[in-house]
Amino acid sequence: MAEYRSLLEELAQNITAEDLEQLKSACREDIPSGEGDAIATGHHWFAFLERHSKLDRANLSYIEHIFEISRRPDLLTKVVQYRTQVLKISEEDEVDTKLTRIPSAKKYKDIIRQPSEEEIIKLAPPPKKA
Prior knowledge:
This is Astrocytic phosphoprotein PEA-15. Keywords: Apoptosis, Cytoplasm, Phosphoprotein, Sugar transport, Transport. By secondary structure, the protein is mainly α. Helices cover 48% and strands 0% of the residues. The chain has a single domain, classed as Death Domain, Fas.
């Protein structure tokens, strides 16, 4: 739990007031009207997400998605490092998480798969020059 709190602290320290407005805008559909003004710091934003079950120690996919669409690769990298080093997420789980970051994709998770050898279209080699 200490690593999780350290991660949130480090992320909050790297969120400026301008960044916070961008992050709140990226998740505006999840912030009830009137509550957005109460979120004045990165710490408040993380506390809000935890209260509304969008963030917890073992589920960081929501903030990964928000950092990704807000173009904050530096923050996204810190979250991914935490997930792979502290939570010990395997590479297969990592791929699964990437596919299900966006809530609407969860219902298609089992459908997404790699094509079999028979399903792959083979291209003929290019014609040889005479």
